[in-house]
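Write out the bound-state structure for glutamic acid.
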Amino acid sequence: MNENLDTFEISQVQLHKACKLMGYDSHIYNALKEPEKFIEIKITMRMDNGETRTFKGFRSQFNSARGPMKGGIRWHPEENESLVKALSAWMTWKCACVDIPLGGAKGGIICNPKELSNAELEKLARNYVRKLSGDIGPNIDIPAPDVYTNPQIMAWMMDEYETIIGKHAPSVITGKPLELGGSAGRSNATAKGGTFCVREAAKDLSKDLKGATVAIQGYGNAGSYAARLLQDEFKCKIIAASDSQGGIYNENGFDANDAFEHKVKTSTVVGLEGTQKISNKELLELECDVLIPAALENVINKSNAANIKAKIIAELANGPTTPAADDILYNKDIIIIPDFLCNAGGVTVSYFEMVQGYYLHFWTEKEVFSSLDKIMTKAYRATVKKAEEHHTDNRMGAYMIAIERVVNAMKLRGWI
Ligand code: GLU
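---
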């Protein structure tokens, strides 16, 4: 398997394999493989120091057959067209896999938000919406946070959209602050949903999560919250964690909350008392029960898949495993909880946020998480069943469920 593919090509390789397993002909694959619409914009604005700068931005609207399109906005220096397209495809399969009535999209701006002032961040957010106001909307395409965007940025975007259309429309965006119609539990929803899947996978292995060892690559919002949940609610032992500056390890475990506080104070987990330093590469190859890639794409690939010793891989990141690595891991009987299932908790609670916004009636966190548990558990069970029926891995199981739903919607609409 060629490992030199870009992210969008990887997503197409996965889709092609799933279409073949479903017995779909090439017309169906061709109808599914590209975004319905890809928008590229340029934002020119005056910076605080008086200089003018131009930023490139994107919105990839992948598929709208099942409902308005949904997906976050990344602000990252390495944002690019291929990545946005791949992420918009995965959003489509994600919403279909957990069976929420939405299509998939993704957006981004090439920028380094860490170098921008608050005023510049607000200007960028408002400009992005001004350029895209005709292409987004509660019944068209609903953005949300992703890497380096947050509830404050969503608030500015919502305000700009409402100013343009001259009325309230909170469901144009999700991941909003609670005061502006956000949902309880939204900020922790991705990690929470992932832990429900880990619980189910452990059941399948007849493994008690109490004392189970966990290694987490990426200690951002999703990774660090997953660590704390697995430790505090499921009594797992967190033995390793990492971020862009390196990793920490203690075979007897360390406190996930201490690691979080250490990262807040020093901006890295490295240096936490009672731990030794390891590399990100070493972390992935540790002896552990649960490995959680919660950072970048393609970190589990042909070069290291054979060395992975975890029993369960819970993919909180999007696209952490290449197709070549998938085959190796399947042959090693490692249970993979594939990305667009494992991290679907975020968009599922975004969907709850839209529903609550329409009714102007808000749920408690307990209600949100209990509904989330039902959706995630059902999707996990269906995925495992489909994979077993077709003697394939869970990623293909999840793909088959998702594409069948999307194809059925396209057929009913008369598109194919
Ligand atoms: N950015 C998140 C994801 O990749 C959430 C998207 C949303 O809530 O629309 O799933």
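---
The domain at 189-337 is CATH 3.40.50.720 (Rossmann fold).
The mean pLDDT is 97.
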